Amino acid sequence: MAATVLVVDDSEAARSTINRALTEAKLDLQVLEAGDGAEALPIAVSGDVDIIIADIIMPRLDGIELLRAVRKQYDPESLPVILVTSRADGETRTTSFESGVNDYLTKPFSTIELINRIQVQLRLLGLQTELRRANERYRVLGTHDDLTGLPNRRSFFDITRRELARSRRHQFSMSVSILDVDRFREVNNRVGYLIGDAIITELAVVLSKNLRSSDVLARLGGEKFAALLLQTDMSEARFTSERLCDAVRAHTFPHQQGGMVTLSVGTATFPNKDIESIDELINAAEASLDRAKERGGDRIELWDAISEI
Question: Residue 172 pLDDT > 50, yes or no?
Fold first, then answer.
């Protein structure tokens, strides 16, 4: 995609010279022109410009004033500005850099030098864009599962901790269900880990479609998921867990062989006389899940039912 360069100079001849130089250099650029800083400013901050080349000495709004106005909305890494001027004094140069200029050229300059400076700024702009994307990816990976895109274990615990405090404060019920795919190791051994990953990814979609938008589905790791069911008591949690299990049984997964995919589910609800903290809530759901697995899987166990055993 072509980068957009805004050339700002009150001299039409100077603008034409720069425009011609950029065209002859055969760079992938779109060139916009403005006759002074006042004309250039709305274009510069529109979000449609990738780099600005501006003269300093101009009527109405000079190059440094234009630069300062641009820097109120864009930092040097996101919108490079190159100032050009016939002034060779150190004070103007210092003021330019203090105001946030990326580069500075003194007239007369060669078109080769200008092209080189532009290419450097465009390369830096590209690197900054890639860096921002990488940082965003790492930020997301810190809270989300890479395979399914669901919240990860740490994020689920953080969300549940906040909701537990809110549940206690406003005195409404909430439930946590831990869901585990039955005999998934056998599935991986039979169809391979790539197909196993595809099954996990599709399972996340099936589960999400059968939960309310207010509920939170997370992948705890491997074949284990967790669902935070807000304003949901034990009977409602059982109903939701049954709906999830039924949906998974009815779904045809990739390369499904040797029977349907089934879930074991353990559910715990707050408030409960035995549960005061998030750790106790999660542990109760995990203990319920263990009981479901011990009893053969493909079933739901509730904490209240097993705590009396």
Answer: yes
What is the token pair recorded at 150? 């669901």
Dist. CA 79–CA 105, nearest whole Å: 17
- Which contacts of 100-109 are long-range, i.e. CB under 8 A and separated by 24 or more positions? 100/67, 100/68, 100/70, 100/71, 100/75, 100/76, 101/67, 101/76, 102/76, 109/84
Rg value, the chain, Cα: 31
Among 65, 91, 136, 223, the active-site one is: 223
Helix 193-209 to helix 234-250 angle (10° resolution) is 130
- Where do runs of H (alpha helix) occur along the chain? 12-24, 37-44, 63-71, 90-98, 111-143, 153-170, 184-191, 193-209, 234-250, 278-294, 303-307
Identity (one letter) of the amino acid at 153? R
pLDDT tens digits for range 65-83: 999 999 999 988 889 999 9
* pTM for the whole structure: 0.58
Residue 309: per-residue pLDDT: 41
CA 187-192-195 angle, to 5 degrees, is 85
Is-contact 40 52, C-beta < 8 A?
A: yes
Residue 31 pairs in a beta bridge with 5
Res 307 pLDDT > 60:
no
24 assigned to active site: no
